[in-house]
Amino acid sequence: MNISRRLFWRIYLNGLLLLIVVAAAGTLLAIFVPVESRYAGRAEQLSRFLTLELSRHAPDLEVLQPTLDLLAQEGINSAIYRLDGQPIALAGDIIPRPLGEKEREKIGRWHPLRQKQWVHAIALETTPPAYLLLSSNTPAHGSRFLLTLATVFITIAVVSFPLARALTRPLEQLTQNARQLAMGNLRSRSGIVRNDEVGELARALDDMASQLEERIQRERELFANISHEIRTPLARLRVALELCEEVPGNVPQTMARLKEMEADIRELDHLVSSVLGHTRRGEAPVTIDSFPLRRHFTDLSGFLADVVQRFQRHHPHDSLHFLQPQFLPAASIDPEMMHRVCQNLLDNAVKYRASGTPIRLHAEVQEGYFFLSVCSTGNPVPEADLPHLFRPFFRSHKEHPVTIPGTGLGLALCRRIVEAHGGVIEARRNAGGMEFLVKLPLTGRSPWHATEAQGN
User: Fold this and answer.
1) Which of 393, 381, 390 has its CA nearest to residue 428?
2) How does the entry describe its membrane topology (predicted)?
């Protein structure tokens, strides 16, 4: 028998035993309550009445037979016996038997007889001496006790079963839910809705399962994001090595490539150091915003110029139309993180644009916010897929062929970084293509301004 069943039968039998004890105590109390209280002095009244009758008919006690017959019609059994047990007058359905020698000592009181009747004995002052026995057609108490106990037992057994079942069923559900969680089914929930302690326990376990599911999901996203971010500088390093092999004698170009490779290595080192730092401190970097942002006032014009230069180095054969206002303020951002946003958006635009069309990068400042948009022509995402673009691992295949490489993590990473800066990012269809718009608050502007940057 499993644990839940043992608990069920323990609750069931304990409740059953308790109720049986209460029922038995009540039945026994009813048995031992003086029977006189149930007849409210009727025997004494009959005794006085018959005494008057005897005074008129003594010593001829047989003449009392009609009187006893009248009592029998009222449900009272009666009998008059001499001391030797010789009957004088009898009436009723169940005639009381004569008293034994020891029983005659209790004349004037109620006591049980072998026929399981309760009788009241009245001494008659006659010659020769006699006594009158009176009994009611009340059922025998011994049989009544067994019948009552059996009825109570059956009733309690029927009522207690669903009660005990109601107490143990939620525990069985919680046990099954815990086993499902242990087997890795993190979406399993108990489904118990109650306002008692069991319901509180179920809600606590469901909340724990939800938090565990969310934590594991975020950790999976984190590892996927880390893999995505590591692949990007590794890919640049591979391209730089290939370019160095193509022109082995061009020292200036090789030195420039080596500087780019050094920057990529620093980016890798920073990423790995951030993850290790959280691990050593016992923290769980479950979201991208758990990476500490190294925010400082950054010249936005210089930042965008660096974005353009990186794009030209990584995509030398692609055209970028860059537009920005004459003056841009400084903003409090993490340049490395925002470089990842710009790089992911530009790389996506290159991958999914129509062949030979340019990429447009537009920057502006309005009402205390910095806006940056990346536009491409061709292959727009279906309208129904726009709300899902920033979900991890989501890829729209209706317009974009599955042969285009990607993990579906770049845009999710962009959203995490932008939101960590207090901004928002959105995607929308424009005329014949796609536009990704980043909106960042200009927290604490610097008093100086940058110069205009030029693009292709």
Assistant:
1) 381
2) Multi-pass membrane protein
